[in-house]
Amino acid sequence: xxxxxxxxxxxxxxxxxxxxxxxxxxxxxxxxxxxxxxxxxxxxxxxxxxxxxxxxxxxxxxxxxxxxxxxxxxxxxxxxxxxxxxxxxxxxxxxxxxxxxxxxxxxxxxxxxxxxxxxxxxxxxxxxxxxxxxxxxxxxxxxxxxxxxxxxxxxxxxxxxxxxxxxxxxxxxxxxxxxxxxxxxxxxxxxxxxxxxxxxxxxxxxxxxxxxxxxxx
Length: 217
Known about the structure:
This protein is α/β, with parallel strands linked by helices and 217 residues long. It has one domain: Alpha-Beta Barrel (TIM Barrel). It has 5 helices and 9 strands; from the N terminus they run βββαβαβββαβαβα. The chain has helices at 55-63, 83-92, 152-164, 185-195, 206-209; strands at 5-15, 25-31, 51-54, 69-73, 96-101, 115-119, 144-149, 174-178, 200-201. The chain has a 9-stranded mixed sheet with strand order 3-1-2-4-5-6-7-8-9. β4, α2 (83-92) and β5 (96-101) form a beta-alpha-beta unit. The protein is globular and about 50 Å long. The two termini are 32 Å apart.
């Protein structure tokens, strides 16, 4: 069955670099494959290749480091049917489970115990037209909505989206970050303060601990 096998780019233990869980020890399961091509993507190495693994073997590898936190990321994890039962099994094992997803794939089947960290793609990504707005119907108070801004226009799109779609009624976990090396975070902070926007400005912590181009950390 398709659910019994996954193609995996890497599994490793590190610290969580983003989200409200930033700084916590975390085991990462990175799947292979993505159907989007964001202009600022920093994980193109996960577009292809990888190792085919049974879900049972992958679960064992994900649990081996014994970190309380496990994140399934990509690529786009939800492209693979085996990810939904894997997420459920990780929750059943007592882990706090994060799912990093692009916002284009359907999140409806995801176990409600999973903390979804879901992008809403800004225009600067080149993939804003792929946002699946129906996914907002499946966002709960423990989930997080993430905006990655490449410029002022992306920030203004973020501001209007937060207000027009009343995102705070869904979750208070609204994350905004600057594309690394393209937009200065201090500018993003200034705009947020000027507008009183109720968001969390975040950094990609791992890019400050290790070289930005480092993988598997």
